[in-house]
Design brief:
With 185 residues, this protein is mainly α. The protein has six helices and no strands. It has one domain (11-168): Up-down Bundle (Ferritin).
Length: 185
């Protein structure tokens, strides 16, 4: 039976999806950062020679939170576009790039695999770019919501590259453990 949904029903369908996707992406992003022991305060990361362009630690939390909200809204638009021709491809590409996104923090911060993390972020960008194009074929607004994420991936890849170049021994670096002992000389 060919039923046509009202604009109100379509909006409510989108809102329901957004109420699921936004908190889910925020939670998964947060969980990945906790598994990875992200950023400043991580003894290994603190011991690295960081590029001068490295933003303060709080910037990463704010930026990633905003990006996960935007991605969640974009994803909700695609999920709500039932029957759209490119929907399945867009969802598969989004899922693939998001899996890489979640793997990056533990790979970089916990496993100290700076080079593998750089390769991962390049793959993430390529797949996220393809997902954005597919989103654009389903809902152009969803594609535009992905653009800040693509821009930030360029920034993150540049920082990853600079850390890799400035710290050729990063993968084997073991920072000295803090001691509570007083040393007399």
């Amino acid at each position: 039976m060919g039923e046509i949904a009202s604009s109100r029903q379509l909006r409510m369908g989108y809102v329901r999806w957004a109420l699921l996707t936004v908190p889910l992406l925020l939670f998964l992003g947060y969980a990945s950062s906790q598994v990875g022991n992200n950023g400043f305060g991580n003894r290994w990361f603190d011991a690295l020679d960081k590029p001068p362009a490295m933003p303060p630690g709080w910037v990463f939390s704010v930026v990633w939170s905003v990006l996960y909200v935007l991605m969640g809204l974009a994803l909700a638009m695609i999920l709500n576009a039932r029957g759209a021709r490119w929907r399945t491809m867009a969802l598969m590409l989004f899922t693939a790039q998001f899996a890489l996104n979640l793997a990056w923090s533990p790979m970089f911060f916990a496993a100290h695999q700076v080079t593998a993390a750089f390769v991962t972020i390049l793959m993430m960008f390529a797949i996220a770019f393809a997902a954005t194009l597919a989103f654009g074929r389903v809902r152009p607004t969803a594609a535009w919501l992905m653009v800040p994420y693509l821009a930030w991936l360029v920034v993150a890849a540049t920082l990853n590259w600079q850390v890799m170049v400035r710290n050729p021994n990063a993968e084997t670096l073991v920072p000295e453990r803090p001691s509570t002992q007083i040393r007399l000389r």
